[in-house]
Amino acid sequence: MTSVEENENYMVKQAQNVRKTDPSSAKAWILTAKTLYPNAFNVQYEAYLLERDGKNFEEAAKCFSVIATNFTNQHAELWQEVNALTNALRNENESTPEQEFYVKMYKHLTPEVQHNIFVHMINNSGDNLQQCIHSYILMFNRFPNTASWQAPRLLEMLAEGMKADPDMYQRMLVEEVLPMIQNKPPELSPLLACRLYTNSLEYYLRQIMDDEKCDTTEAWKNIFKVLMLCGQMMGWEPFLPFSKQINQNVYWDKLVKILRGSPAGSSQVLFYATTLFIYSLHGYIRKLRIEDADVSHVLVEGFIDWSPSESDEVQRMDCQPDGGDVQSMEPPKFSATTAISQELSEAFLHAARCWQLLNTEQFQRDFSQLMLALPLAPWISRFLFDLAIYFGHRDEANKLMADMNTPSTLVQSLQILSLNLMQGSMTYQGFQCVLKILAELPATSGQLLDNISLKSHRHMIFLPLTKIALIQYCTRAIVSRLSRMLFEPNCSDRLLGDLLALLQLSADKDVLLKQHIFQLITQRKSFNLHTLSNYIIATDIIEELAFIWNSQLDDANFELTGSPTSGGGAGSSTVAGSAQPRRIGTRGADKGARDEFKSLIRQQIARCNENIPALVANFITQEHLTLAQHIFGMAPPVETIVIK
Fold first, then answer.
1. How far is 393 from 375, CA to CA, in rounded Å?
2. Which CA distances in Å does 409 have to 288, 435, 441, 545, 639?
3. Closest to 106 measured CA to CA, from 181, 52, 42
């Protein structure tokens, strides 16, 4: 150590000894040392510490400027202060009293020194990626103009950091960095810009999917902002900003316009179409569950109205093989069954259009990679299953169902039933699904749906998972199958009666089918209606049966089965061997029989205000063996209980 260094150290030591007890003496020692040794780091640093400890932020700023300007990074003490300063700036809104001093001191530094602090921090961060990124962010906040030429390096570092900790670096990208560069976006390589957009999209999608309190409108607004920003970086034609007031057809028309002016496989079209697809997909999945209500919807096959000329169609449908797709030149329509059906169908069709575009040869590979990088698996599996149902690809839908995680056995049974109906003829598996659905009916009552059955063309419906809607769908599935058997020459009395019991659910519908059944009844010399007292209470059917009973000729016999006591209902039962139901016939009927018939009719009409959906569901459940015999020709076992 030279004599000069010894003298420097001596003066500094003297100042340190009295710094806390006699600040004035300490300052005198340092002023003397600064005069004699102005280029000595330890002298200048001690002068800074003296002002820092005295909370003199203006003088401390002057001293710090001298050190930062004249001394480089070989002094560890300097970098400790720089670290303390930058940490204080990073926590400016929640700073401690000590950090408040650094913030005030920083404001009195010259702009050049302020900027150099960040540059030095960045250049000396070494392998500390997080510290380097934070320094860049602080510098951009304090010196926005530096972002235009420094941002590419920062964005590359963020992309690198996402490999190790995607959550943290995605948050930094989306919440801190992108807002700073959106007004003057830098030029980036297409690969980096697309990568940053994908990571931003993943960040917002996780919020939408995982956070029930997420403002999805705000999230989508931000996604579109990032899309526009990345488009600017790559010189793309601007897309449309996000607005819930913009119809999705407008977005699609804009996409088609850009597509026509772009080369095959354009990244611009890929990312615009992918964003529009996910936006439509999210709307579809979200609308499947009605907002603020515990009611979900499931896309299922609709029914075709029965007609007297159905026999040829029956043969065609019944001859369709068990496997394969539904053959149709035109895609099916959507029936408006609930208030949200229109919105659901529009969101689904928009998503389907984008999906088909993105799965063309020019985009398929890149789009598949994007889908693997995004957390969309639960949405995609449900959408692809519904898409397969929509296009009638039954084999594909069966494969997708095997891979799909469906937590609800009710939904699964309904989807299997719909797939079963798609082939045109309900199988025993479909019938079992009906029984499972009726055994798991939800508590939400709901209401009967319109347009569940239409004329002459295939259609789809969004079925709400409510008690009445599910009963209606299951009932219609059985009616659709049983009504085809009306054209068979040996159609049984029991089949006609069971159809009448099922048709009570749609009092103002199925007029032609009911008329055909009554016509078949009147044409018969003998007819026995077993299900009257237990299950038939609809006034229109009761009145027609009464008319037939009263108009029977002497050579015909029309029998109705009545309860041994008045007041029998669908919820009561008698064990075999006890009092048996009484038959009331027209052949040889005396006054007593006619009075008994009138009493039976009055008894049934008195029950007309009962819950018909519950009655029909109970009928299917209790009489499922007989229904199975009708449909599949299965001989039912001996019954030990008579439901009345």
1. 26
2. 17, 12, 11, 40, 29
3. 52
Q: Which residues pair with 527 in a beta bridge?
A: 558
Which residue, 380, 373, 21, 359, is CA-closest to 197?
373
**What is the reported pTM?**
0.81
Strand 333-334 with 459-464, pairing: parallel
Of residues 246, 152, 144, 143, the one with CA closest to residue 193:
152
Give the type of residue at 565.
T
Q: What angle, 0 to 180 degrees and rounded to 10, lies between the N-to-C axes of helices 493-502 and 511-522?
A: 150
| DSSP E strand stretches across 488-536 | 526-529
Tracing tokens 């896309």 back to the chain, one arrives at 299
Give residue 308's pLDDT. 72
| Residues 96 and 146 sit within 8 Å (Cβ to Cβ) | no
Residues of the chain under the 70 pLDDT cut:
1-2, 72-74, 290-294, 309-329, 552-556, 560-593, 634-644
Backbone angles phi, psi at 525, to 5 degrees: -75, -25
So what's the pLDDT on residue 141? 86
CB-based contact 268:236 (threshold 8 Å): yes
Angle of helix 57-70 relative to helix 97-107, nearest 10 degrees, comes to: 70
**Distance (Å, whole) CA 73 – CA 61:** 18
Q: For residue 31, give both structure tokens.
A: 């002023």
Judge whether 473 and 463 are in contact, CB under 8 Å.
Answer: yes
pLDDT of residue 639: 38
Strand partners, 298: 463
Which ranges of 359-466 does DSSP label H, i.e. alpha helix?
364-373, 377-390, 394-403, 409-422, 428-439
DSSP 446: -
pLDDT at 118: 86
C-alpha distances in Å from residue 53, one per residue of 2, 24, 60, 61, 591: 30, 13, 9, 13, 118
Residue from 349, 40, 373 nearest 206 by CA: 373
- How far the first Cα of the chain sits from its last, in Å, is 114
Structure tokens at 282: 């999210």
SS3 state of residue 239: coil
Which pLDDT belongs to residue 34?
A: 85
